[in-house]
Amino acid sequence: MRSSTNKISAVVLHTLKYRDTSVLVDAYTDLFGRQTYLVNGVRSAKNKAGMACFQALSLLDAVAYHRPKNDIQRLKEYYLSIPLQNLAFNVHKNAIAVFMGEVVYKTVREQEPNEQLFRFLRQSVLELENIEEGTANYHLYFLARLAAYLGFASGNDYKPEHTYFDISSGEFTIIRPKHELFFDAEQTALFGRLLKAEIADLPNIGLHHSQRSTFVNNILRFYEHHFDALSPICSWTVLGEVYA
Protein backbone atom coordinates (compact mmCIF):
# COMPACT_ATOMS: atom_id res chain seq x y z
CA MET A 1 0.00 0.00 0.00
CA ARG A 2 1.21 3.51 -0.79
CA SER A 3 2.32 5.88 1.91
CA SER A 4 0.41 9.07 2.64
CA THR A 5 1.80 12.44 3.63
CA ASN A 6 0.14 14.04 6.64
CA LYS A 7 0.54 17.13 8.75
CA ILE A 8 0.56 16.05 12.39
CA SER A 9 0.99 17.42 15.89
CA ALA A 10 2.85 15.25 18.37
CA VAL A 11 4.09 14.93 21.94
CA VAL A 12 7.54 13.31 22.08
CA LEU A 13 7.70 10.40 24.54
CA HIS A 14 11.03 8.68 23.95
CA THR A 15 14.05 9.02 21.65
CA LEU A 16 16.60 6.36 20.75
CA LYS A 17 19.81 6.83 18.76
CA TYR A 18 19.77 4.91 15.48
CA ARG A 19 22.91 4.35 13.43
CA ASP A 20 25.33 7.27 13.08
CA THR A 21 23.10 10.30 12.56
CA SER A 22 19.48 9.21 12.93
CA VAL A 23 17.02 8.64 15.77
CA LEU A 24 13.88 6.63 16.41
CA VAL A 25 11.25 8.80 18.05
CA ASP A 26 8.20 7.47 19.86
CA ALA A 27 5.47 10.10 19.99
CA TYR A 28 1.78 10.44 20.67
CA THR A 29 0.08 12.13 17.72
CA ASP A 30 -3.24 13.78 17.07
CA LEU A 31 -4.01 11.77 13.92
CA PHE A 32 -2.44 8.35 14.51
CA GLY A 33 -2.13 7.84 18.26
CA ARG A 34 1.14 6.25 19.38
CA GLN A 35 3.72 6.04 16.57
CA THR A 36 7.42 5.39 16.05
CA TYR A 37 9.22 7.64 13.56
CA LEU A 38 12.60 7.37 11.91
CA VAL A 39 14.25 10.78 11.65
CA ASN A 40 17.30 10.79 9.40
CA GLY A 41 20.28 13.12 9.77
CA VAL A 42 19.09 14.77 12.96
CA ARG A 43 22.38 14.03 14.74
CA SER A 44 24.60 15.24 11.92
CA ALA A 45 27.01 18.18 12.24
CA LYS A 46 24.83 20.21 9.87
CA ASN A 47 21.74 19.80 12.05
CA LYS A 48 22.94 20.81 15.51
CA ALA A 49 19.56 22.27 16.50
CA GLY A 50 17.60 19.22 15.37
CA MET A 51 17.85 17.19 18.56
CA ALA A 52 16.19 20.00 20.51
CA CYS A 53 12.95 18.91 18.85
CA PHE A 54 13.14 15.43 20.34
CA GLN A 55 13.61 15.98 24.05
CA ALA A 56 11.08 14.46 26.45
CA LEU A 57 7.61 15.99 26.01
CA SER A 58 8.63 18.31 23.16
CA LEU A 59 5.58 19.57 21.26
CA LEU A 60 6.02 19.15 17.53
CA ASP A 61 4.30 20.08 14.32
CA ALA A 62 5.52 17.85 11.53
CA VAL A 63 4.96 16.37 8.11
CA ALA A 64 5.02 12.58 8.28
CA TYR A 65 5.05 9.75 5.77
CA HIS A 66 2.67 7.00 6.88
CA ARG A 67 2.42 3.55 5.35
CA PRO A 68 -0.41 1.40 6.75
CA LYS A 69 0.71 -1.55 8.92
CA ASN A 70 4.34 -0.35 9.08
CA ASP A 71 5.85 -0.42 12.56
CA ILE A 72 8.12 2.54 11.81
CA GLN A 73 7.05 5.66 9.92
CA ARG A 74 9.15 8.62 8.73
CA LEU A 75 9.22 12.31 9.51
CA LYS A 76 9.89 14.58 6.55
CA GLU A 77 9.68 17.98 8.25
CA TYR A 78 9.47 18.92 11.92
CA TYR A 79 9.70 21.93 14.19
CA LEU A 80 8.77 22.89 17.73
CA SER A 81 5.22 24.16 17.85
CA ILE A 82 5.95 25.73 21.27
CA PRO A 83 9.52 25.99 22.58
CA LEU A 84 9.64 24.71 26.17
CA GLN A 85 12.41 26.62 27.92
CA ASN A 86 11.65 25.48 31.48
CA LEU A 87 11.42 21.80 30.61
CA ALA A 88 14.72 22.05 28.78
CA PHE A 89 16.76 23.93 31.40
CA ASN A 90 15.05 23.42 34.78
CA VAL A 91 16.54 20.26 36.31
CA HIS A 92 13.43 19.41 38.33
CA LYS A 93 10.98 19.97 35.49
CA ASN A 94 13.18 18.09 33.05
CA ALA A 95 13.31 15.07 35.36
CA ILE A 96 9.52 15.15 35.71
CA ALA A 97 9.14 15.45 31.92
CA VAL A 98 11.33 12.39 31.32
CA PHE A 99 9.33 10.45 33.92
CA MET A 100 5.96 11.44 32.46
CA GLY A 101 7.13 10.60 28.95
CA GLU A 102 8.31 7.15 30.03
CA VAL A 103 5.03 6.36 31.79
CA VAL A 104 3.03 7.20 28.65
CA TYR A 105 5.58 5.40 26.45
CA LYS A 106 5.12 2.21 28.45
CA THR A 107 1.34 2.34 28.85
CA VAL A 108 -0.10 3.73 25.60
CA ARG A 109 0.12 1.40 22.60
CA GLU A 110 -2.95 2.18 20.49
CA GLN A 111 -2.10 3.37 16.98
CA GLU A 112 -5.35 5.19 16.48
CA PRO A 113 -6.50 8.73 17.27
CA ASN A 114 -7.76 9.59 20.72
CA GLU A 115 -8.45 13.29 20.76
CA GLN A 116 -9.15 13.46 24.50
CA LEU A 117 -5.89 11.73 25.41
CA PHE A 118 -3.87 13.88 23.00
CA ARG A 119 -5.38 17.09 24.37
CA PHE A 120 -4.77 15.92 27.95
CA LEU A 121 -1.11 15.15 27.23
CA ARG A 122 -0.52 18.43 25.44
CA GLN A 123 -2.23 20.42 28.18
CA SER A 124 -0.19 18.57 30.83
CA VAL A 125 3.04 19.53 29.06
CA LEU A 126 2.03 23.19 29.02
CA GLU A 127 1.00 23.06 32.67
CA LEU A 128 4.36 21.63 33.68
CA GLU A 129 6.18 24.23 31.58
CA ASN A 130 4.29 27.14 33.16
CA ILE A 131 3.75 26.08 36.77
CA GLU A 132 5.72 28.25 39.21
CA GLU A 133 4.75 26.75 42.58
CA GLY A 134 3.88 23.16 43.44
CA THR A 135 6.15 21.65 40.79
CA ALA A 136 7.20 18.84 43.12
CA ASN A 137 3.60 17.61 43.19
CA TYR A 138 2.96 17.80 39.46
CA HIS A 139 3.87 14.22 38.54
CA LEU A 140 1.52 12.95 41.28
CA TYR A 141 -1.28 15.10 39.87
CA PHE A 142 -0.51 13.82 36.36
CA LEU A 143 -0.50 10.13 37.34
CA ALA A 144 -3.74 10.45 39.29
CA ARG A 145 -5.56 11.87 36.26
CA LEU A 146 -3.87 9.86 33.49
CA ALA A 147 -5.46 6.59 34.65
CA ALA A 148 -8.89 7.76 33.50
CA TYR A 149 -7.60 8.38 29.98
CA LEU A 150 -6.05 4.91 29.94
CA GLY A 151 -9.41 3.34 30.74
CA PHE A 152 -9.19 2.46 34.43
CA ALA A 153 -10.44 5.43 36.43
CA SER A 154 -11.55 4.83 40.00
CA GLY A 155 -14.97 3.20 40.08
CA ASN A 156 -16.40 5.67 42.61
CA ASP A 157 -15.72 9.14 43.99
CA TYR A 158 -13.61 9.67 47.09
CA LYS A 159 -15.41 10.64 50.31
CA PRO A 160 -13.88 11.53 53.70
CA GLU A 161 -15.16 8.30 55.25
CA HIS A 162 -13.19 6.22 52.75
CA THR A 163 -10.15 4.74 54.47
CA TYR A 164 -8.70 2.62 51.67
CA PHE A 165 -8.30 2.57 47.92
CA ASP A 166 -8.58 -1.00 46.64
CA ILE A 167 -6.17 -1.41 43.70
CA SER A 168 -7.80 -4.67 42.62
CA SER A 169 -11.36 -3.34 42.38
CA GLY A 170 -10.32 0.22 41.57
CA GLU A 171 -12.64 1.66 44.21
CA PHE A 172 -12.46 3.73 47.38
CA THR A 173 -13.77 1.74 50.33
CA ILE A 174 -14.44 1.96 54.05
CA ILE A 175 -13.53 -1.67 54.72
CA ARG A 176 -9.91 -2.87 54.61
CA PRO A 177 -9.42 -5.21 51.62
CA LYS A 178 -8.59 -8.84 52.44
CA HIS A 179 -5.60 -8.71 50.06
CA GLU A 180 -2.53 -6.45 50.15
CA LEU A 181 -3.24 -4.38 47.03
CA PHE A 182 -4.51 -1.17 48.59
CA PHE A 183 -3.57 2.37 49.64
CA ASP A 184 -3.57 3.15 53.36
CA ALA A 185 -5.68 5.95 54.82
CA GLU A 186 -3.14 8.75 54.27
CA GLN A 187 -2.42 7.73 50.69
CA THR A 188 -6.11 7.19 49.95
CA ALA A 189 -6.91 10.71 51.13
CA LEU A 190 -4.08 12.10 48.99
CA PHE A 191 -5.32 10.21 45.92
CA GLY A 192 -8.82 11.56 46.46
CA ARG A 193 -7.49 15.08 46.86
CA LEU A 194 -5.40 14.90 43.69
CA LEU A 195 -8.36 13.63 41.67
CA LYS A 196 -10.39 16.67 42.67
CA ALA A 197 -7.54 19.19 42.55
CA GLU A 198 -6.96 21.98 40.06
CA ILE A 199 -3.47 23.01 38.97
CA ALA A 200 -3.67 26.05 41.29
CA ASP A 201 -4.17 23.74 44.29
CA LEU A 202 -0.81 21.96 44.00
CA PRO A 203 1.25 24.49 46.02
CA ASN A 204 -1.15 23.94 48.93
CA ILE A 205 -0.67 20.16 49.07
CA GLY A 206 2.09 19.96 51.64
CA LEU A 207 4.06 16.73 51.28
CA HIS A 208 7.53 15.58 52.15
CA HIS A 209 9.71 13.41 49.94
CA SER A 210 8.75 10.06 51.47
CA GLN A 211 5.02 10.79 51.08
CA ARG A 212 5.48 11.59 47.40
CA SER A 213 7.61 8.49 46.86
CA THR A 214 5.06 6.27 48.56
CA PHE A 215 2.24 7.69 46.46
CA VAL A 216 4.12 7.21 43.18
CA ASN A 217 5.00 3.64 44.14
CA ASN A 218 1.35 2.97 45.00
CA ILE A 219 -0.09 4.49 41.84
CA LEU A 220 2.43 2.60 39.71
CA ARG A 221 1.22 -0.60 41.43
CA PHE A 222 -2.28 0.43 40.33
CA TYR A 223 -1.01 0.85 36.77
CA GLU A 224 0.84 -2.48 36.87
CA HIS A 225 -2.39 -4.21 37.91
CA HIS A 226 -3.94 -3.10 34.62
CA PHE A 227 -0.83 -3.62 32.46
CA ASP A 228 0.48 -7.12 33.10
CA ALA A 229 3.60 -6.56 31.00
CA LEU A 230 4.39 -3.08 32.32
CA SER A 231 8.15 -2.88 32.70
CA PRO A 232 9.78 -0.84 35.49
CA ILE A 233 9.74 2.94 35.07
CA CYS A 234 13.50 3.53 35.09
CA SER A 235 13.31 7.32 35.27
CA TRP A 236 11.45 7.12 38.58
CA THR A 237 14.76 6.36 40.31
CA VAL A 238 16.36 9.47 38.79
CA LEU A 239 13.38 11.67 39.67
CA GLY A 240 13.47 10.39 43.23
CA GLU A 241 17.13 11.35 43.52
CA VAL A 242 16.50 14.83 42.12
CA TYR A 243 13.90 15.52 44.82
CA ALA A 244 15.63 13.64 47.64
Question: Please, could you describe this protein's structure?
Answer:
The protein is α+β, with helices and mostly antiparallel strands and 244 residues long. It has a domain at 131-244. The protein contains 7 helices and 8 strands, in the order βββββααααβββααα. It has a 5-stranded mixed β-barrel. The protein has a 3-stranded antiparallel β-sheet with strand order 7-6-8. A hairpin with a 6-residue loop joins strand 4 (59-66) and strand 5 (73-80). Helix 2 runs parallel beside helix 4, helix 2 runs antiparallel to helix 7 and helix 3 (115-130) packs antiparallel against helix 4. The mean pLDDT is 93.
Put the structure in a nutshell.
With 244 residues, the chain is of the alpha+beta class.
